[in-house]
Amino acid sequence: MTKNLQLNSEGKLKHFLTIEGLDRQLLIDILDLAESFVGMSDQRIKKVPLLRGKSIVNLFFENSTRTRTTFELAANRLSADVLSMSIATSSTSKGESLLDTIRNLEAMYVDMFVVRHAISGAAHFIAQHSAPHISVINAGDGQHAHPTQAMLDMFTIRQIKKDFSKLRVAIVGDILHSRVARSDILALNALGVAEVRVIAPKTLLPTKVETLGVNVSHNLVDGLQDIDVIIMLRLQKERMSAALLPSESEYFKCFGLTEQRLKYAKPDAMVMHPGPINRGVEIESKVADGSQSVILNQVSNGIAVRMAIMAMAMQKQGGV
Ligand code: CP
What we know:
The chain is α/β, with parallel strands linked by helices and 320 residues long. The chain has 2 domains: 3-145 and 300-317, Aspartate/ornithine carbamoyltransferase (Rossmann fold, 3-Layer(aba) Sandwich); 147-298, Rossmann fold (3-Layer(aba) Sandwich), CATH 3.40.50. The protein has helices spanning 3-6, 24-38, 66-77, 98-106, 122-129, 147-161, 179-190, 220-223, 248-255, 259-262, 285-288, 295-315, and strands at residues 55-60, 81-86, 112-117, 135-141, 168-172, 195-199, 215-217, 229-232, 270-272. The chain is globular, with a radius of gyration of 19 Å. The structure holds phosphoric acid mono(formamide)ester. Phosphoric acid mono(formamide)ester (CP) binds next to α3.
């Protein structure tokens, strides 16, 4: 549904709202461009002039540490002018509608909105109602999508495992409420992994989850067999409308990733987590901080991947 909206008439990226409808080659192009930005973090001057003269506004209507900060750093490194709006102190808190906020920012000659919102579809709505020259990047909308997180996850997997085609990837935990899980499943399947397996209690899985292109396990030890990549998810209590679990300690007993349980996956399995992590709820500290964990590599890679996505989305305006 968003394919036409995300791509311009030449098939180039205009908005980045969801992985759905994007082909494998475009995802590879993002990963390759991000690769060219990775080394910049070690350079004395961490900037390229690709988006000089462009104005980017970060609109975060929901809390964030990693996404907001890495988007801001990425925009700075592309030499854009970047403004992170504090929604709590903006006129939204005085009753201004989302559309009026957007119209007012447009009047300030903004070129790109980076949007996080608790409502699924918010970034899509803004993209539909913004001026034609504006690009919108989805930084996480409700339970729907977190496509830049998926791309930094894919980048981190490729960095270590090189070839997607033989990989078996397990996503463990609260799949039901997770926008990261949805976007990761779409990206992993588009990039051609051998298997995506979701491991969760029945109460934390969407109905007909198999139709997303995954195998299902309700047992962590069985589910980790032959797995190359483990993506752990936190319990998204803020999105749970009912008690879906007996308790956090009961959940950890059955689905928490411990050193002992990690041994059931392949010996070189990498452990990922989009953050924020809840130690002792879905993951043991020894695993989160252990040698197989790439959780902080994911955060670092977020800068290069978000630079690539912003640069590509601006391409259609002659900004690159
Ligand atoms: N992974 C992620 O989206 O983290 P933040 O909520 O801190 O941005």
